[in-house]
Design a protein that fits this description.
Number of helices: 0
Strand order of the largest sheet: 1-3-6-5
Order of helices and strands: EEEEEEEE
Radius of gyration: 21 Å
Shape: elongated
Helix content: under 10%
Oligomer: single chain
Distance between the termini: 73 Å
Largest sheet: 4 strands, antiparallel
Strand content: 35-45%
């Protein structure tokens, strides 16, 4: 039997694998139907024309075409306006 306790490991030292978030297709690039345009946490950029959002806020193309980005002022229910970013795919 051991006279003293051995070295104990901590659970903190495990590395989490990267999530690979960010913009995958930039403005002017061609997108195929179903291709991922943006992977994000939360709805920082909203889907526009011919684009949809998955349950993990991934924005993907519905049709084949060219990716474009735009900004638009959006009014909330309390009357405040915010500048929101949208992504479109123009076929």
């Amino acid at each position: 039997m051991a006279h003293r306790g051995g070295k104990k490991t901590t659970g903190i030292s495990r590395d989490a694998r990267p999530k690979y978030l960010g913009v995958k297709l930039y403005a002017g690039q061609k997108a195929k139907a179903g291709s991922i345009i943006i992977r994000q946490r939360g709805s920082e950029i909203l889907p526009g024309k011919n684009v949809d959002m998955g349950k993990d806020y991934t924005i993907f193309s519905l049709v084949e075409g060219e990716v474009s980005y735009r900004a638009k002022n959006k009014t909330s229910f309390d009357g405040k306006t915010k500048r929101r970013k949208y992504v479109d795919v123009i076929s």
